Amino acid sequence: MTVLEANITASVSATSAESHAPLFVFAGGGSGGHLYPALAIAEALRNELGAIRTVFFGTERPIDNRVLTHAGETLVPQNVRPVSSRPWRWPGFLRAWRASTTRCRAHFAAHRPAMVVGTGGFASAPAVRVAAKRGIPAALLNPDLVPGKANRFLTGSVEAIFAQFAETANHFPDGAPVEVTGCPVRSTFATASREQGIAEFDLDPQRKTLLVTGASLGARSINTAMVHLAPQLAARSGWQVLHLSGSDDANIVRSAYASAGVAAKVVEYTEQMACAMAAADLMITRAGASTIAEVLASAVPVILVPYPHHRDQHQLAHARLLARRGAAAFCTEGDDAGATASALAPILADLMADAARRMEMRRALADVRSPHAATTIARRMIELAGCRRAVVA
């Protein structure tokens, strides 16, 4: 046993004073979208069962360690990698796959999970496949309208696929165990207030707030587009900007706003996204599935700028779905920052000027959201795992 594995074993054993508390494994990572919904489910499981143990089989990317350490969760980092279309990379993929499945088998032999949930992405595959071979109940979380390659590959290994959108079932084979639950978000999205958000980010309560973010890792194309739009924003009296930029572009964005005279707060990263959205009167963001779920939970009027380089264009599918329902506006990303800024400028100007349209968006978002998704999934997991729910006095 390596030092890392010994530390993991100790952490799992010490996670609960109740030595027989059920263990739930969440597999997946590499972005906030693969982590935050799982954290919401873990929170709901604790509310339902009381004492549980949890382990996250994630990736070696820094965000996994940052998010899970902040949440007090145990991370098992895997060096698994996605399948490449380039044959000369296949040996490296196979070595990483074998190493990850070996680690999962060893861990599950020492600490048999009550259930394993794949949260999407290539890092979910080893744990879900090992669980299926060992007769451990397994499920998938599929918040994207169009399922990714990993979830399609794992369909036959699970008892349930928890989907955010009803339309997702059309993208799986007939008979796939798709259950439409919505996408879980952390409970703070239901409780955060505008006042909390204003205080958290030291904003001016007398101004309306435009929130700009490229999701957990930032988005350079959105950042540079907003640099182009800084003079336009300066002309909007009564507004301020809260911009979550990521670390690489923070100084450039901050300098552009300052030079244009924009009232702006630029933050590299925050764990307080619920507060940021609660403070917002309008938002510009990507259209990833967990971001969509958080937008729905917060009912914040939004302009979506879908990431354009995914092969399946699932972010564009999300944006179009919400736009059809009157719950969002969206624009496509251009070939350069100037083109993106030109596409975004008229949409942004119209929505900043139109309070009635923003209110219509809020109502439409509230109609679409699934506020109890985490609890719904947790209860279904408890059923599949054969656990008993806590008795409430």
Helices and strands, with pairings:
Blueprint: H1 3-14, E1 23-27, H2 32-49, E2 53-59, H3 62-71, E3 75-78, H4 90-110, E4 115-118, H5 125-133, E5 138-142, H6 149-154, E6 160-163, E7 178-180, H7 188-191, H8 194-200, E8 208-213, H9 220-234, E9 239-244, H10 250-260, E10 264-267, H11 273-279, E11 282-285, H12 289-298, E12 302-304, H13 314-324, E13 329-330, H14 337-353, H15 355-368, H16 373-385
Helix pairs in contact: 2-3, 2-16, 4-5, 8-11, 9-10, 9-14
Identify the CATH architecture of the largest domain.
Answer: 3-Layer(aba) Sandwich
Number of helices: 16
Query: Mind telling me the CATH class of the largest domain?
Result: Alpha Beta
CATH superfamily of the largest domain: Glycogen Phosphorylase B
Please give the domain count: 2
Please outline the major beta sheet: 7 strands, parallel
C-alpha geometry:
globular
Structure notes:
With 393 residues, this protein is of the alpha/beta class. The protein folds into 2 domains: 3-183 and 371-385, Glycogen Phosphorylase B (Rossmann fold, 3-Layer(aba) Sandwich); 188-368, Rossmann fold. It is built from 16 helices and 13 strands. It has helices spanning 3-14, 32-49, 62-71, 90-110, 125-133, 149-154, 188-191, 194-200, 220-234, 250-260, 273-279, 289-298, 314-324, 337-353, 355-368, 373-385; strands at 23-27, 53-59, 75-78, 115-118, 138-142, 160-163, 178-180, 208-213, 239-244, 264-267, 282-285, 302-304, 329-330. The strands form 2 sheets. A 7-stranded parallel sheet has the order 3-2-1-4-5-6-7, sandwiched between helices. It has a 6-stranded parallel sheet with strand order 10-9-8-11-12-13, with helices on both faces. Helix 13 links the parallel strand 12 (302-304) and strand 13. Helix 8 (194-200) crosses helix 11. The longest helix is centred in the N-terminal third of the chain and has 21 residues, at 90-110. The chain is globular, with a radius of gyration of 21 Å. The model has no long low-confidence stretch (mean pLDDT 90).
